[in-house]
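User: I've been trying to design a sequence by hand for this structure and keep getting stuck. Would you show me what you'd pick, starting by listing the structure so we're on the same page?

Assistant: Good idea, let's start from the same input. This is the structure you sent:
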């Protein structure tokens, strides 16, 4: 956890909100990737999707370590 401190309710809500935003980004990327005909554009979108996935994983882990359940 962050320096041994606990998350406040407000921090928890901010993190949950960010998880939802990152998940939406992943869903949009999943829609656009199959539609791309240009491989370079497809690769950039895949990189954005991968980055969002890492963010979701990191934020979810942070919530779990603080004793909260991440949004599904």
């Amino acid at each position: 956890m962050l320096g041994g401190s606990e998350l406040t309710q407000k921090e928890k809500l901010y993190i949950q909100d960010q998880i939802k935003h990152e998940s939406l980004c992943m869903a949009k990327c999943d829609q656009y990737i199959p539609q791309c005909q240009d491989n370079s554009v497809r690769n950039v979108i895949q990189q954005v999707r991968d980055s969002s996935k890492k963010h979701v994983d990191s934020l979810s882990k942070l919530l779990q370590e603080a004793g909260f359940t991440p949004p599904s």
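That's my pick for every position. To get oriented when you compare it with your attempt: The chain is about 70% helix and 0% strand. Residues 8-65 form one domain.
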